[in-house]
Design brief:
It contains 11 helices and 10 strands. It is an alpha+beta fold. β6 and β7 form a beta hairpin.
């Protein structure tokens, strides 16, 4: 029983560090999106729906334990996992759209994660935009050992009141499939917006059992953010297992978005990196992985190798 579970563990660690949203390196290229172009009416309806969600969540956002208006949700679906973060941010919708409408900008923000060592944009053979992330199993592994995660990228809607970006993949590593990643944002006023970042994916029984085995052994001390009770000493008892894993990754990637938006256009890469690290260290119980000097050294090496920015 131990043999089949130990073999996938390195890949499961990598999967957890790769947004849980990407293609396998051997997955076929995605077909270009053939959905009809969104109309102004459909964009307006989506904007109204997201504003209604903001109103419905008003009390939770105001009482958020994160010290700012953030709501983090996770759930096990019949076939996989889903994580969602909702947040009010101090950025106008035009500012968010300018920062997040291009795949190259997403490469800049995704590589803030310590395990994401390189990112490339391009066009799929059948057409459509692609974004390929190079992910290492652990932060101390060389980029030559990274596996490639190419996924399709599409701006589903971009109007003065609403932005929607989607990334989709039919197949993923280790028996995972049906990945759907989305970011949507709606203007609340001239200075604030409401964001929803979410992802979901399916997995087969083998992957589920291997993930649970990893989390019960190597990852037994890892927790998420949802409080499920109190410890004997009165401290919060945080959710563990697969939902804890989903919550940690959702928060890490929300913080990359938030850091990128807050840093401003043209900000030096190291300033962004320091900001992301400081944001993640606000939640050391869940997100601490490496010390600041090591993190900055890794990112500096990556930039020098690829000639990517300052």
């Amino acid at each position: 029983m131990s043999s089949p579970f130990h073999l996938p563990a390195p890949w499961l660690r990598a999967l957890a560090g790769a947004v849980l949203l990407a293609f396998s390196a051997h997955a076929p290229a995605a077909s270009p999106d053939t959905s009809p172009a969104p109309t102004s009416a459909s964009a307006s309806a989506a904007a109204q729906a997201l504003r209604a969600t903001h109103q419905r969540m008003g009390a939770k956002l105001a009482q958020s334990g994160f010290g700012r208006p953030i709501q983090l949700d996770s759930m096990e679906t019949p076939n996989g996992l889903q994580g969602d973060i909702y947040a009010v941010v101090d950025h106008s919708l035009p500012e968010i759209s300018a920062a997040l409408k291009e795949p190259a900008r997403w490469c800049e923000l995704l590589t803030l994660h310590v395990n994401n060592r390189r990112c490339r944009t391009g066009t799929a053979p059948q057409g459509g935009e692609m974004l390929t992330l190079f992910v290492v199993r652990r932060y101390d592994k060389p980029v030559e050992q990274a596996f490639q995660l190419p996924f399709a990228y599409r701006v589903a809607s971009a109007t003065p009141e609403y932005l929607s970006v989607e990334m989709n993949a039919a197949n993923g590593p280790l028996g995972t499939s049906n990945y759907r990643v989305m970011l949507e944002a709606v203007a609340l006023d001239g200075q604030k917006s409401f964001l929803h970042f979410g992802y979901s994916y399916d997995h087969n029984m083998m992957v589920r059992m291997a993930t649970e085995a990893y989390l019960a052994t190597f990852g037994r001390n890892k927790v998420g953010f949802t409080v499920v009770g109190k410890e004997a000493d009165g401290q919060p008892d945080y959710i563990r297992g697969t939902r804890g894993l989903v919550e940690r990754n959702a928060m890490r990637y929300f913080l990359t978005l938030d850091t990128y938006l807050s840093s401003g256009a043209g900000a030096p890469a190291e300033r962004r990196e320091r900001s992301w690290f400081a944001a993640a260290e606000q939640y050391p119980r869940q997100l601490h992985e490496v010390d600041l000097d090591t993190y900055l050294a890794i990112k500096r090496e990556d930039r020098q190798r690829d000639g990517a920015g300052r």
